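User: Could you walk me through two proteins back to back? I'd like the raw sequence and the structure tokens for each, with a short line separating them so I can tell where one ends and the next begins.

Assistant: Of course. Protein one, sequence then structure:
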Amino acid sequence: MSVSLKRGTAIFAAVCMFFCLVLPFRAVYAAEVQDGAEIPVRSVVENLPEAEADSFVFQFEIAADEEGSPMPENTSISITGEGTESFIIPYDRTQPGIYSYIIRQVPGERTDVTCDREVYQVKLQVIEDNGLQTVVSIRTASTNEKTDEAEFRNSVNKPSSDSEEDPKDESKENPKNDPEKKEPAKSSSEKQGSKAAAAESAKTDDSSNLYFWMAAGVTALLMMGAVIRRRRLARADEESAR
């Protein structure tokens, strides 16, 4: 009985020692094989006002393009103004595999910003090459161009002239200021022609007045002559009658 108890105690102690030695080793080993691939995302903003740069916040998200692809702890990141942040994709560097992702920008609610609609395709390859190696490939979905980072070029819209406050329209209050009602400016040749026409018109008026007075004078002389003639005839009749 005592021998069996001693054997049982020894076995139990051996098992406990086994778990105490093996479990920490497995935990450390698991931590060593777990790694993370960095996928950089860059925000570039055109016409960014420096005084208001902190008010422009852009959000980006990553999604698995194939089932089974390990996902980062944070599937979305935010960048204030311009800068670079990264998605960290965890993977087991003891297990070969190919994982696919898509990165895009989340459209914001600001109406004064034109957001980049580009989509980036990311492939993470864990391959056997004298040991396991990782290869990260980033390409644009629109042109399939390979890049070093997912770069999004946003633009702050400049205020248009229509949105600016228009000065008070004086043409509505004063018709003289209305360009549609103003006479077009005359050239120097037109002004000279107008002056010559006015002078010619004045000369014509003077000539007309002169002719009028000459005709009136002639008429008056003829009438005076007729009166004088009548008087002479009347006197001659009276003298002959005597």
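----
Protein two, same layout:
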Amino acid sequence: MKNKNAFYKSFACGRRNHERSNFLHNKIFVLIMAATIALGSFAYAAPDTDSSSRDRTQSSLKTDFPKPNAESAIVIDAKSGDAIFAMNSDRKVFPAGTSNIMTAMIVLESTKLTDICTVSEAALANVSYDQPQLGMLPGETFTVEQLLYAIIMNSNNDAANTLALTVCGTLEDFVQKMNDKAVELGMTGTHFANPTGWHDENHYTTAADMAKLAQYAMKNPTFREIVLTQKYVFPASNMRSKEKTILSTNHLVSRYKYPYHYYPNATGIKSGNSTNAGYCLVASAEKGQLSLISVVMNCPNENANEGAYSFTDTKAMFDYVLKNYQTVELAKQGDVIHDSKVKEAKDSTRLALTVDSDLYTTMKSSVDPKNVECDVEITKDAVAPIVQGDIFGTVTYSYNGKVLKTANLVAANEVKRDFILHIINLIFGFIFNPFVIIIAILAVAFYLRLRAIKNRKRKIRQSKLASYRRENETPKTAKDSYNSRNRRNSRNDSYTRRRR
């Protein structure tokens, strides 16, 4: 795999690789826990239950931020997900037509743009005259793509119902899919009751949740194209002989109705309003590497120009952030963050580690990204075989001691095992295994002990046998003793004569 070093050139990031043992890790953990318990006995701070810590932190640090005239609001970096500004962002609010963002995503992920939708009586049954609608007729046919433009650009409720029935057959089943998707995206403060956004006490969301939804939706190319559209023309249908033109109600992207609100950097997304929800706007803007998502809910718009706070305040927030902030690319998937030797690797292949997804953070424009530090922690030994995507540790990026982002480090390449090296290591591992060595030593000691015992027993037997033989030997007679003595004397005389 190609080694990408652009990351290091960008940040001059000093790697400090901490390959910690489990023993050291556990020891530090115990010390930290002990210190925490000790401190806890001296001081206690009651938790603040008023709002999210995100709201308090962002609002207090950015006193010069243009505060929007809204019940709740949030601005996030679409790439990093970081909240740059938040105000009551977790407060329950009614989403009105911005609900169609979720409706559109369910449809896009469940159908083809060319699928045909046939308008039914059921789709029109609960659409009253005071609701926004395309004016569809029972039996009229449209493509999925045409009705997506209708719900995104104009919040047409008859179109939303028709799409929902095309996808699921019943409105209830479609709404369940909407709520399931909300759970999947982590929209913990959201519940949908219909596909249109028409007011229902059980149909609510939060500004933070809508930002998550918009961040997800803007990754879909078809959705991005629709939300940037200023004008759309419906061709004649099977029941209409004339074309029908609609204009986007998101005036940040359109010059047609209210050019006063047009914003060159805007890229979408969706407006909505009702008596209970007020004026809502989920918007997006881009400039350079910075991509933003803004949400304002329940704005008290007073007129179509300066008093249209959902648009004017959104533009003011975009201007401020685009001027004062930057998106910093910490690492891209495929960048080599760390590499190491691999035990039993075929052809001495090394292991390259990368992040499991692109990693960004949002910082003030005055900050030099080169001062961002990265800290690599390896938690798993590199032993072949290794599958691409296996997790081996984490990388943490920080600035001035503050953690910015943490991500998993995964194998960027596959490493195959060398079979011969593996067999050799198994043999040596068995031979030099401490347990095997101890068993061998004990076996030798046991053998020597048995041999010593056996030798001792043999000597005892020999000693006893010799003693037995001495005790049981037949005594010699006097005659035998006399003859033996005469023979010995005769030999001695013979020897004496020869000497002479």
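The longest strand covers residues 278-287.

Let me know if you want the two compared in more detail.
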